[in-house]
Design goal:
The chain is an all-alpha fold. It is built from 9 helices and 2 strands. The chain has a single domain, classed as Arp2/3 complex 21 kDa subunit ARPC3. Helix 3 packs across helix 4, helix 3 runs parallel beside helix 9 and helix 6 packs antiparallel against helix 7.
Length: 200
């Protein structure tokens, strides 16, 4: 058997094993994914003109659902949001509490969950989605539509911003290059780890 075939065989076995786990074990994996997001959320760079910081968590938010699969990727992101709102200090900058959901970044947190359910479903259901270009395209769509969409809507509500250009400068434009780089990184890791055959 060639090296490529051997690697593909191990990828397939790992994902088949993941899918066959009992729900308590899947829940533990989902919790581990939430911890991963919380860890990268501490990589944070505040910007003076916006209440939305640059963080590393988007990398984990995009990668987690591909590795954990449909439903459990979304559950992982939901656990991150719910436990953070309940008081676990793992939102960006070590913040916690319901105020984070009602504050300027609350829409992005909701968007994380939407993006995760979408990415988990697409990568599990469609083999073509696991090509590098397919993963990158899906991640960029999830990032800029499913995360930034509700993020901008809620940011406008909280800040009262009615000028679309000003809103985009607060909530999207400064983050484009960083988000693209994180999506490229997440797509590259996901492509290396996911099997190129089989659906779950």
């Amino acid at each position: 058997m060639s090296l490529a075939a051997t690697v593909e065989s191990y990828r397939y076995r790992a994902f088949a094993w993941r899918s066959s786990l009992s729900w308590p074990k899947k829940l533990l994996l989902a919790l581990g994914g939430a911890v991963f997001i919380g860890f990268l959320a501490q990589v944070r760079l505040p910007l003076p003109w916006t209440p939305v910081p640059v963080t590393g968590q988007t990398f984990a938010v995009l990668l987690n659902p591909v590795l954990l699969g449909r439903n459990w990727g979304g559950i992982s992101e939901a656990l991150y949001v719910i436990l953070g709102a309940a008081g676990l200090p793992w939102f960006a900058g070590g913040k916690a509490g319901l105020a984070c959901l009602t504050g300027p970044t609350g829409g992005y947190l909701v968007g994380f969950v939407l993006a995760a359910f979408f990415l988990g479903y697409m990568s599990d259901r469609f083999v073509r989605a696991r090509s590098w270009a397919g993963l990158l395209g899906l991640m960029l769509f999830a990032n800029f539509l499913l995360i930034h969409g509700p993020g901008l809507l809620w940011l406008a509500h909280v800040t009262g911003a009615t000028d679309v250009a000003k809103l985009l400068w607060m909530g999207t434009i400064p983050f484009i290059s960083g988000d693209v780089l994180k999506a490229v990184g997440a797509a590259t890791v996901a492509f290396a780890l996911t099997p190129k055959k089989g659906t779950w």
